[in-house]
## 1
Amino acid sequence: GAVVSQHPSWVICKSGTSVKIECRSLDFQATTMFWYRQFPKQSLMLMATSNEGSKATYEQGVEKDKFLINHASLTLSTLTVTSAHPEDSSFYICSARAPGSSSYEQYFGPGTRLTVT
Amino acid sequence: SQKIEQNSEALNIQEGKTATLTCNYTNYSPAYLQWYRQDPGRGPVFLLLIRENEKEKRKERLKVTFDTTLKQSLFHITASQPADSATYLCALDPGGGDKIIFGKGTRLHILP
């Protein structure tokens, strides 16, 4: 149980285009999903917290107009990187939390490798 | 400033020995601390959680200690195997109970 999937697992896009990454909880409902970004040999950096049916909460320094998050259902959150640039190339990982659970009960997806050329 | 530091970027251990990884934190008072394993190109996988009132937690060949006075957690893998080679991340709740933050990780190489 507690499986989280991401799609696509990798994507290459041209500079200036937008790309959407999906995060799904497969066997549980997730009221809260988290989006992280990880650069090579660096830690996972929390970008935003997404609650179903409400606006995402972004961490300091993360541009909300560039990284659009939509959490339209209890099993799906999407991250759209708008007007992508090479510096946005990174490994994007989502996690999901079930209703009523503590912050530590997060289940992580396998990640999406974004390369912007 | 608030920091989570893991002792070394990389650690080489001979197969069969015990690997010990360190996580130190500054200016946090976490109610718990977690350890994750991350393989290249994959998301992190939860291993163990230890609460502030627990000194030690074990799971098979894994052992975690938590010293809130030293603000340190140690993660041990006994009888290490090449399959244990991965990056190990520590994580904690910075307060508020709504998110966790991660250290940079330690890349562990178990040498056959």
## 2
Amino acid sequence: ILNVEQSPQSLHVQEGDSTNFTCSFPSSNFYALHWYRWETAKSPEALFVMTLNGDEKKKGRISATLNTKEGYSYLYIKGSQPEDSATYLCALFPSNTGKLIFGQGTTLQVKP
Amino acid sequence: DTEVTQTPKHLVMGMTNKKSLKCEQHMGHRAMYWYKQKAKKPPELMFVYSYEKLSINESVPSRFSPECPNSSLLNLHLHALQPEDSALYLCASSQKGPGQGRNEKLFFGSGTQLSVL
């Protein structure tokens, strides 16, 4: 069973701090890696879908990198704001299955 | 309209009850998914419908019965559930099926929080 691991499990930062967290996985044999942002009482919302060419993706203050050789992806948030408080999920689409496998998420709390 | 709508938001049921969860999208997506999430755990795939046909069943017990009446609707019928089935049930959709659209993002509903007493 493929394990997608995210660390840390939770994170508390001050407004204005920059932060990053990790998604790691054991295989480079996959089609895509997804990042989702999930605010409390709302729907998970896609941030990025990253493919094997390993492009850096950017959306405003949030960016993500993918290292397929060593099996990890980083999500960076520059100048965290209280509205960034959410759980960030990564998910892998392995080559040998038709399904997305999720990590358990990193919960970010940004204090004003 | 980029929403996936799930009803009800909360459901409490007894072990002998029959209930249904509903999911609707009007984005023209051809794949729809049911995920189950227990607290502090990753969402786990239950079922995938692709072009209104069941394409993936992750060995889910038969007390969960999915139905896709048309391309916009997805139901999950519940019967004789156990307390350990209490969880958040998430519906999602994507433009194409998982085999064709591996690089596509999923659009999620906000879930139904189910409690089985």
